[in-house]
Specification:
By secondary structure, the chain is an alpha/beta fold. The chain contains 21 helices and 18 strands. The protein has two domains: 345 residues, Alpha-Beta Barrel (TIM Barrel); 123 residues, no CATH class. The strands form five sheets. The protein has a six-stranded parallel sheet. A five-stranded mixed sheet has the order 16-15-14-17-18.
Length: 490
């Protein structure tokens, strides 16, 4: 079957969707976070997950299958009863153990059948998670094996259990794109981008971005995408902007065991905190010294709860940003909190053309918050539209007032560049921009002038600018007359 996934609001490649999980009888709103549950090591009872905002969780069917007690309980009670969770449950297949230990004693047909038998709502075949930077031959060989297993998975009768089709390909974008195209063609339901956890652990957010965007190019636009292992709230906005719909996190529990406290900007060790910079129920009712003085079990419990609160709070913040049309502003603010996340955001902007294809043509506002804003898809779209405009005669492009000696008078504003005055009240030309514009904004405006002039070789252009930097003026074609209209240049 093909999962029913309906997309509502969009911003760039980010989207809010409704994913039907037929076996669970629920519809999950995405983006969503699935807490990871190790059935042998439960920190927060899954029955409490809805209190934090969870509609879905993920657990490992391979662990359940190979533990005699858990195996018996899961087959007898069912996974939902065993874990005490009424929402949707996704199960992994053991591919993580395969990546860690090199082999596992199960195969796709067997593990899918087991996942169905214990009541999983979304199952996963045994794919091969090729690590980053593997040589090309290994990546191609293991991808071919994964693709064979996905084709096999599509033939296994699992009733109304949805089935994942992991997208592999290591750090080769062309293989990721091919893998996405093949996975989508199998008719399976959800599409996790696999083997990216090592990239995230190494803060290689730029390489992670390239892998996800390549996979998205191969997948259909109606494909729900799961980013395996995306558990830290500092990257949820970026991951959503890449077009990912589902995330899973063991970080809430793993970090809590190490006395680590999650924030949207990073991770703090409990011993380093004098105040809790959060207003979740845990932080509102406790101080760091109080939590430091608790038993290890109680301390771990409270930190895990906080980590869940802050994680789901960021998910809601991302959703609101998508609804409001300012997801890119949120991504930018998060990115500037850490150099590595900034690399990820800039890698995203390298593919502004890919984002532009699904970005709404109209939003409430465009806010220019840094030099990176000059590379956003809204600017690219405006520049492309300039190439389609037919202009003739003598044309003044100016930041100031017009003149009767010109046939036409257009406004010109960084970062968009020139536009007819009649469009001055339309999005995105109503942008909120700083008075002290940076060089990147002026250079983006000059790029707009260049595109308009080159698309209209018979027209004559004069650019009236207010002290643009030389780097921007160098981008303007020589046939455009330059006039500095700033007080210093008059």
């Amino acid at each position: 079957m093909r999962a029913v996934f309906e997309v509502g609001a969009q911003d760039g490649a980010g989207r809010i969707g409704e994913l039907e999980i037929p076996r669970a009888g629920v519809t999950v709103e995405t983006p969503t976070l699935m807490p990871v549950v190790n059935p042998n090591l439960i920190t927060v009872e899954p029955s409490r997950f809805p209190d934090f905002g969870a509609e879905m969780l993920i657990t490992n069917s391979y662990i359940v299958k190979n533990d005699p007690e858990l195996n018996e309980r899961a087959l007898d009670e069912g996974l939902h009863e065993m874990l005490g969770f009424d929402g949707a449950i996704m199960t992994d297949s053991g591919s993580f153990q395969l990546a860690e230990y090199g082999e596992i004693d199960t195969h796709t047909e067997e593990i899918l059948q087991f996942q169905y038998d214990i009541g999983s709502d979304v199952g996963t075949p045994v794919d091969i998670p090729t690590p980053p930077d593997a040589d090309r031959e290994q990546a191609e060989t293991e991808l071919a094996t994964t693709q064979e297993r996905l084709e096999l998975a599509a033939t296994v009768d699992v009733g109304d259990m949805l089935v994942n089709a992991p997208v592999q390909g290591s750090t080769y974008p062309e293989l990721r794109e091919e893998a996405g195209r093949h996975a989508y063609g199998t008719g399976l339901d959800l599409f996790p981008v696999g083997a990216v956890v090592p990239l995230m652990n190494q803060y290689r957010y730029d390489d992670m971005t390239e892998a996800v965007l390549a996979a998205k190019r191969g997948l259909g636009r109606d494909a729900p995408v799961h980013l395996f292992g995306a558990g830290h709230p500092m990257m949820f906005a970026l991951a959503a902007a890449l077009g990912c719909d589902l995330f899973d996190s063991a970080a809430y529990a793993i970090y809590a065991r190490d006395d680590r406290y999650l924030t949207v900007d990073g991770t703090e060790h409990l011993d380093d905190l004098h105040y809790f910079p959060c207003d979740c129920p845990v932080c509102a009712d406790h101080t760091p010294p109080e939590v430091q003085g608790m038993s290890a079990v109680d301390r771990e419990q409270l930190l895990a709860e906080h980590n869940l609160y802050v994680s789901f709070g960021e998910i809601r913040r991302v959703k609101q940003a998508i609804k409001s049309g300012n997801l890119m502003e949120l991504v930018e603010s998060r990115a500037h909190a850490h150099p590595d996340s900034l690399d990820g955001y800039r890698a995203l902007l390298d593919h502004a053309d890919q984002l532009e294809a699904s970005d709404p043509a109209s939003k409430d506002a465009f806010r220019y918050t840094s030099a990176d804003s000059a590379r956003r898809p809204e600017v690219l779209r405006h520049h492309r539209r300039l190439e389609r405009l037919d202009v003739s005669g003598d044309v003044l492009l100016t930041e100031g007032s017009g003149s009767n000696r010109f046939d036409e008078w257009w406004n010109v504003d960084p970062p968009f560049g020139p536009y007819p005055r009649a469009l001055s009240t339309t999005y995105p030309l109503t942008a909120e921009t700083p008075d002290r514009m940076d060089r990147a904004g002026f250079e983006a405006a000059a790029e707009g002038v260049r595109r308009l002039a080159e698309a209209n070789p018979k027209a004559s252009f004069t650019l009236g600018h207010r002290g643009w930097p030389d780097s921007a003026l160098a981008l303007v074609p020589e046939r455009v007359e330059l006039v500095d209209i700033s007080p210093e240049g008059e």
